[in-house]
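User: Can you recover a sequence for this backbone? Please restate the input before giving your answer.

Assistant: Of course. Working from this structure:
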């Protein structure tokens, strides 16, 4: 099959090249529109208790706002209680109520808790009828409607966070691409020594990224995709396509020295092309694991990754052979580094050194990888918030200003939805709610409560019962507005403010205690809010992860079993993969949760690990790391099939592919490391995790552990039951 593909691509090389170029030309006009078609966020699920609670409140309380924008006002001399301060604040937001989806404004003049205890600032709340991840669509209109005054105005809240996230993500992508391309070119020049040979993989990488982004834009017409699709498409698109091209170009140069041009192209596609196909299949399996998750961010990464693999492998098996057929011996033109013929002497020496002392090498290396992974024992998983943005962004600065003035938990209260058997305004229901809110307020972790029965401590239970006997005739405008915003016929909302950050253990324990609390006769409760969203999302993600991981591992084993025709080699490859992955997990916690090297990497420590990162890294790296295993072991298998000498197979396989694997890993590390320059901590962590895992995998695992374990297993490396071996021979795809 691969021989036929190679022969077709060679004989119709100009048509193949023209077809790919036409596809790229069709995609180019779409590229500037891609980011605008993608969605921000994607870290929530509609099936969590928090999301169901939010939707319940939206549906059954007419005046409830599922999202809001916090507008902070401050002045160097004026105070929020000064009439001039109030006048300027009201003038600033005068035109905002006319903006679509704005349902109202809560003023600090009506609620003294919206004035900082030290009197330094105050805030108003712009209420919206959109869900948090949708609300950023109206942020530009709201900002345009805000009139400048003498007050300093800052915007905080989910809409501001998501708008900044989109803007910073696009900027990160442009910066990473500007860094990745020249550094990848330098690495390719070092590996090949020829400008033409180095330019070919970069050309394939550019074609892959352009086509993938064009397809992504087309997909946004029929489904939602996350903004992070951009970063993943560029990172994997460049990394994988350059890797695959590197292996094929290297093998082509080797074959061209011994065969005619057409035969060299065909043999390259038959051998290295077959390895690329199976390598792509393992990456595809890993990324397909993200399809088990309902979260838009993770599903989008999976879709982008699958598209990258399909396009990169297709380009490597058709476009690249066509280019090689066109270039022929000119592949070595424009030499910038003169090298002698590659003998593999160094890699022969390495394999011989390792195989002479396998236990002395394997035990320390395995121990070191396990030690690197130990910080992961202390992982604290959480969903992202504005702290993943750099401190230079407006929404992050507003968040920090708000936290300093009002405390850590003031921006993200627990939102309790209380369903009542009797109407909310029934005297018995009011009494039950009154008792329940006093029970909550007695908890030392609770700083304040907002509800229809806690508006003013001077109002007694009996007075609340009288006031709400007919909600349409509540005499006080403030009481009437609060009732309309927080109460429906049989449902009411209670906001519980705490003194802790949403992701803290203190806030999580309070959430647990409230969810297990008996609210009183005739009442049922559900809880939403920042802490509830974090806890529910993490629990849902990791309830689905074991099945996804098991499916990926089993499918990868089957693919490697078919490729290598061995029972033990795929199992060993999986174990070694897990070791390098564990080490990168430990680095995530050590760096981004605990904050080591934060000044060097330019970020503020999160204090937690973003919950989706370990899962996304598993699905990406489990496949990507198998690239090198596939290329290395398939080369060893070729020698084993000819000689049946395990030691020679290991030494020759490493000698023939060692430099290329190191070069390929170097390029992928360079591309991934370019994303470490990102300002969004989530992208920075993903880039560092992939770079570290690939570096460990190519340098330590493939160079030391693979030869050591191959030596220890000996002939058992290649064992397969006879009946299975005969069946595998019938499905071999070499020709």
């Amino acid at each position: 099959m691969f021989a036929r593909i190679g022969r077709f691509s060679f004989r119709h090389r100009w048509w193949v090249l023209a077809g790919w170029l036409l596809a790229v030309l069709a995609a180019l006009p779409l590229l500037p529109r891609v980011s605008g078609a993608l969605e921000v966020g994607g870290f929530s699920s509609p099936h969590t208790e928090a999301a169901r609670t939010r939707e319940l409140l939206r549906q059954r309380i007419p005046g409830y706002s599922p999202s809001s924008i916090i507008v902070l006002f401050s002045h160097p001399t004026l105070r929020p209680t000064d009439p001039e301060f109030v006048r300027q604040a009201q003038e600033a937001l005068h035109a905002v109520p006319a903006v679509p989806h704005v349902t109202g404004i809560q003023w600090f003049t009506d609620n003294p808790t919206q004035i900082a205890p030290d009197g330094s600032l105050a805030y108003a709340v712009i209420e919206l009828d959109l869900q948090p991840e949708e609300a950023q669509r109206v942020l530009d209109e709201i900002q345009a409607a805000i009139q400048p005054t003498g007050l300093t105005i800052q915007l905080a809240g989910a809409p501001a966070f998501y708008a900044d996230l989109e803007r910073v993500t696009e900027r990160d992508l442009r910066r990473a691409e500007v860094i990745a391309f020249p550094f990848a070119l330098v690495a390719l020049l070092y590996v090949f020594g020829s400008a033409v040979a180095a330019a070919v993989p970069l050309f394939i990488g550019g074609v892959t990224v352009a086509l993938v982004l064009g397809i992504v834009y087309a997909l946004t017409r029929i489904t939602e995709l996350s903004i992070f699709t951009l970063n993943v498409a560029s990172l994997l698109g460049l990394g994988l396509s350059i890797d695959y091209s590197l292996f094929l170009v290297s093998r082509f140069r080797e074959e061209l020295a011994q065969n005619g041009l057409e035969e060299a192209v065909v043999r390259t596609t038959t051998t290295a092309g077959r390895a690329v196909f199976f390598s792509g299949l393992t990456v595809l399996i890993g990324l397909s694991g993200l399809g088990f998750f309902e979260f838009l961010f993770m599903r989008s990464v999976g879709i982008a990754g699958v598209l990258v693999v399909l396009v990169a492998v297709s380009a490597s098996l058709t476009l690249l052979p066509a280019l090689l057929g066109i270039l022929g011996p000119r592949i070595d033109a424009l030499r910038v580094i003169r090298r002698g013929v590659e003998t593999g002497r160094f890699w022969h020496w390495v394999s011989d050194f390792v195989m002479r002392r396998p236990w002395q090498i394997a035990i320390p290396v395995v121990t070191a990888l396990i030690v690197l992974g130990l910080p992961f024992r202390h992982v604290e998983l959480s969903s992202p918030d504005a702290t993943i943005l750099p401190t230079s962004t407006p929404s992050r600065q507003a968040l920090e200003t708000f936290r300093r003035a009002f405390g850590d938990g003031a921006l993200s209260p627990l939102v309790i939805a209380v369903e009542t058997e009797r109407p909310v305004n029934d005297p018995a229901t009011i009494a039950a709610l009154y008792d329940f809110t006093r029970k909550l307020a007695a908890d030392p972790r609770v700083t304040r409560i907002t509800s229809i029965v806690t508006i003013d401590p001077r109002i007694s239970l009996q007075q609340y019962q009288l006031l709400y006997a007919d909600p349409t005739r509540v005499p006080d405008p403030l009481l009437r507005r609060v009732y309309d915003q927080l109460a429906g016929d049989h449902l009411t909302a209670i906001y519980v403010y705490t003194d802790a950050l949403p992701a803290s253990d203190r806030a999580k324990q309070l959430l647990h205690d409230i969810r297990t609390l008996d609210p009183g006769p005739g009442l049922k409760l559900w809880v939403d809010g920042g802490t509830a969203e974090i806890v529910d999302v993490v629990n849902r993600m990791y309830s689905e992860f074991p099945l996804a991981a098991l499916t990926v591992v089993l499918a990868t084993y089957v693919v490697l079993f078919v490729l290598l025709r061995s029972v033990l080699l795929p199992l060993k490859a999986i174990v070694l993969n897990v070791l390098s992955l564990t080490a990168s997990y430990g680095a995530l916690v050590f760096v981004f949760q605990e904050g080591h090297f934060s000044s060097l990497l330019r970020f503020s420590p999160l204090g937690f690990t973003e919950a989706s990162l370990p899962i996304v890294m598993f699905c990406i790296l489990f496949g990507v790391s198998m690239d090198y295993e596939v290329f290395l072991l398939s080369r060893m298998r070729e020698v084993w099939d000819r000689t049946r000498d395990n030691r020679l197979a290991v030494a020759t396989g490493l000698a023939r592919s060692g430099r290329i694997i190191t070069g390929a890993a170097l390029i992928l590390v360079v591309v991934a490391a370019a994303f470490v320059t990102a300002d969004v901590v989530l992208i920075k962590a993903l880039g560092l995790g992939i770079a570290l895992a690939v570096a460990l995998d190519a340098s330590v695992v493939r160079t030391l552990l693979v030869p050591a374990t191959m030596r220890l297993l000996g002939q058992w490396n290649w064992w397969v039951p006879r009946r299975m071996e005969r069946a595998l021979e019938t499905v071999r795809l070499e020709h």
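That completes the design. The chain is about 60% helix and 10% strand.
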